[in-house]
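Limitations
The structure tokens in this dataset are predictions for the assembled complex, not deposited experimental models. Users should treat interface geometry with appropriate caution, especially where small molecules or nucleic acid strands are included. An illustrative entry is reproduced here so readers can see what is and is not provided.
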Amino acid sequence: MAQPLLELKQLRTYFVSAKGTRVVKAVDGVSFTLDEGETLGVVGESGSGKTVTSLSILRLLPAAARIVGGEIWFAGENLLTKSEREMQHVRGSQITMILQDPLMSLNPLFTIGEQIAEPLRIHRGMHGSGLAERVKDLLRNVRIPSPEVRMREYPHQMSGGMRQRIVGAICISCEPRLLIADEPTTSLDVTIQAQYLQLLKDIQKRSGLAMIFITHNIGIVAKMCDKVAVMYAGKLVERAPVREIFNKPAHPYTEALLNAMPKLTDKTERLWSIEGQPPDLANLPPGCPFSPRCPKAEERCHREVPPEFQVGENHYTRCWLWER
Amino acid sequence: MSDTLLEVRDLKKHFPVMKGIIFQKPIGWVKAVDGVSYTINAGETLGLVGESGCGKTTTSKLILLLERPTSGSILFRGRDIQTLQSTETKTYRRGVQAVFQDPFSSLNPRIRVGDIIAEPLVVNEALPKAEVKERVQELLRLVGLNPSAVNLFPHEFSGGQRQRIAIARALSLNPSLIVLDEPVSALDVSIRAQIMNLLLDLQQQLGLSYLLIAHDLAAVLHLSTNIVVMYLGKIVEMGTSDELRHKPLHPYTQALFSAALPAHPDEQREEIIITGEVPSPLNPPSGCRFHPRCPFAMPACSEVEPVLRSTANGHQVACHLYNEPS
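Predicted assembly:
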């Protein structure tokens, strides 16, 4: 079997307080694989560890965070053993990331042309008219009208949707193999969101790029992803191909997430809500972290952390219900 | 059938765009709300849907008396709220409350929860302390929080709990209408369902009316009795939520449905992806304001502005596609 493009093996990223007294297990034993051209959706609530997982892949963690265990294999190399210099080459040219708010990820003092040219100059050594042509091509690729004019403008002169498309252009400028999108459309309007998702799909079709979509919106997963990883309190509670997740959710949390969404097509009388609050990561309950809110929890769930069980083909879940 | 609680008639709000620093003069007008009429019945929810800049929030500010309309009127129980005397304005303000999007910025971080909820009571009603305390505890129970929470500060609560506190504060004066401005969009998915269920329960228990402003179509359909779809300050379509769910007429509403995210990967939808972005309200397109983005635009659309006309079942749409051939 061909080697996957990205493979996480039991990744553990912890936040440790200054004196080492408090440890927050932000990412605790996450494993998944991603092939070339595939899209993985990472779903979970705030604080479930989705963003820390993606920042661990890029090794852009805040100072308090440490990767304490596991491996990250990208294109046959372990990213965790690379030097900072080597990582700089990976970021921006091999793996790129789109963040939630395009206004924060663009520099207000540089024209967008300069900002799109920067990775090309650094990673590809391009310059002069060749570089300018490439920037124009990229702007055309993300459907910015009249690129010659727009490349001389600043981020504040553009609308939210256009800014996010410019971030997209920066991300694909060096033809990366993996694009991580962290809630790319939360700040956009509904019709603009639909345009943007379509654009990302088209780019993927053309370049065979692999994508990781980090989102809390199950709808984006249904529209965009080939497979899904559901996270809860730092743990990957379920992973499966997208249809498996929607047709046969194995973990009670996944099931609840799917049922908590109001449907567009027919009237639901009452939404299925998950009672209680997500747990405090510094103070996790023993056993399964979802057990205090789980309607199907048994005595054992409150005591022992469930391992990963196989439910179907490529379908795994961390829930005692599936022990055979 | 049901009583009209609030009626908005041909409401307009135009903001001037000024030039100059000392000798300012208006150089243009932003027509944020441009001739909008609808009614909210007692015990029902009206959902306002539209993208940013369509005038949803300005409408809610006008109803909350935070802005004065340029023209048009808002009738509350049959009386125009612009002409109320000061004591009557006070009564109106008590009857209409609001819950905002972000429970992190709508609650004062330095005030204890009990005092946050009690503040409207203390300001508006000269109640003895013991009664205020009792009422606060009752309100906390009503929104599903532990009455012992009165002495805690907002930062000790999660987003969903804070939104419950904001709802308790809005309920403290027994209002008849609550303006909900994106009440669930800042919350996590599993908490959203809790708050939506709470809002529906409270409506049933207390007979409240809601004006719900949101951009999540599925959530609006779920909560609302009637829906108004706005685009650039105008109503393009309105009707009951069942009508809209099964038979959206205006191309913009259809595009909103098409752009809404599917609930299942196999869900098939008619793909109407509209191109372009919402034009600037400073210089809205001529004729139908949606025509530059509309996939069904005809020559007439850029010249004649369509008016809102009724089709079946109280459904109204402003689009030349549905005009009687003359």
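Some entries come with short summary sentences. For this one: The domain at 4-322 of chain B is CATH 3.40.50.300 (Rossmann fold).
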